[in-house]
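Deviation from plan, reported transparently: manganese (II) ion complex.
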Amino acid sequence: MSSKLASLNDWVASVAQLTQPDAIHWCDGSDAENARLVGLMLANGDLIKLNEQTHPDCYLHRSSPTDVARVEHLTFVCTTHPADAGPNNNWMAPDEAHGEMDALYKGCMRGRTMYVVPYCMGPVDSPLSRCGVEITDSPYVVANMRIMTRMGAQALARIERDGSFVKGLHSVGELDPDRRYIMHFPEELMIQSYGSGYGGNALLGKKCHALRIASYQARTEGWLAEHMLIVGIENPKGETHYVAAAFPSACGKTNLAMLIPPEGYRRDGWKVWTVGDDICWMHPGADGRLYAINPEAGFFGVAPGTSEKTNPNAMAMLNHDAIFTNVGITADGQPWWEGMSSGQPVKDWQGRDYDKSVSPAAHPNSRFTVSAKHCPSYTAKAEDPEGVPISAIVFGGRRASLVPLVFEARDWTHGVLVGAAMASETTAAATGAVGVVRRDSMAMKPFAGYNFGDYFGHWLSFDKPGAKLPKIFQVNWFRKDADGKFMWPGFGDNMRVLEWMLKRVTGQAEAVETPVGNLPKPGDLNVDGLDLDPAVLEQLLTIDRAGWKEEMAHIGEYLEGFGDRTPAALEAERARIAAQLA
Ligand code: SAT
Ligand code: MN
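Because the crystal trials were delayed, the predicted structure below was used instead.
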């Protein structure tokens, strides 16, 4: 097989020339093709079949123990000028990077099949969607791409119509951490990945394309590619408002996207609809509002901590047609991870006999891959080619102290500053130390495909005559008390905070103005039925002026790090707030 597009055929031929596969397979995305690949992986040990009664068509994959997370230190943005990648990225000259990669790729697919995977990010018929082709030698990657994207014949037809696509080349190589690179060439709309089979390093449609390359493309084309979930909140009158929310990896985006409201809300008729749990592409519409699509077709969620209590919607979608990576397993072949309310693991994620004193059953960054259509709260609006209008944008991080439960930015410029200044404690989603506070602007630190200074400027540019922009909020579900205990219950109760935001959007709630932002008036946040000490709530909604004065100084130093690429308007906004706090 080949395509009607000469540029695609030529590229596939040149990659085959370099990598020397035994065979080339063009993926059509069919059930028969998937069944064949699954059969192959069961035979070679890449997949283990799970209990057919409890988990029909579910499989366990155990990765190499040194290949379990994104590798930010091996991830590069290769622009002609280093300043275009910015201090927020690792940079390598494109020529040098191509040289390194060609040397790694040379003959690397000998004895293997090369799969050509055409995919579309977003509904195939949407003008907001963009396509790519991933070439890979991993059947596990193909099986995951089939869930995570619109993959196969339909995508190829669109690529042939569009005539353009993002080129992604991936090989698992030897899975050697010392021979591993994730390279991005935004100026060529190209991704090259070698030596890892893990999600964010290998499923190139996800972070590599839909965030790093797309953010670069979005800047030139006037839209935004963001690390955000998209959720619809339906009120008892049947009106739905859509909210986009940015949080760093493993900070609860999937749980928030699938939130089940507290009982009182459900009784009153509130509903929550899932559009996406990780990535959001937003384009300005003719009416001045921002319209968003979820470019993905599935969820690649963190397994540990997912339970009937924290995310019943996720649990309901995980008992058929799912791939589990690096979780434990019970005696009767069911997947198991820490936080599950029942079951007992017998093997850990590496296939060793489970011993609690040696290692957790599931790796902290173990994942499930499942089609979005399985999610009980998934909305048909997620397939709408026009996207959904966004009423509010939320920035959130994991901060044990200082940042209140919620505040609203005064205007767009202030909101962009709030996003740019975001900080969070690091998690197991990337290799490296966990729990260290670092700046993570818009939760895009590992994912922006260009200089953050230019990126902040791009965000500011949306504020123009005729624009009807969403309100911007900051939240922090992760405040801890002196004993290290979380102060806010989180999960379903985050609905209370969402309701206050939407009241602000529709002009139904007032706010207390502070230099840092606008906070809920006492009594405006619905805490009915919540077992929360009023003193704790007050603490959660108080601004520590001295602490914020210091924070503003740190933010100033951070913004200075992007030199003259930092927009003057952003620094002026920061200086204004700092002066008010003084
Ligand atoms: O590994 S992924 O990048 O796909 C998931 C994440 O870190 O958010
Ligand atoms: Mn993510």
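The chain has a mean pLDDT of 97. We consider this an acceptable substitute for the interim report.
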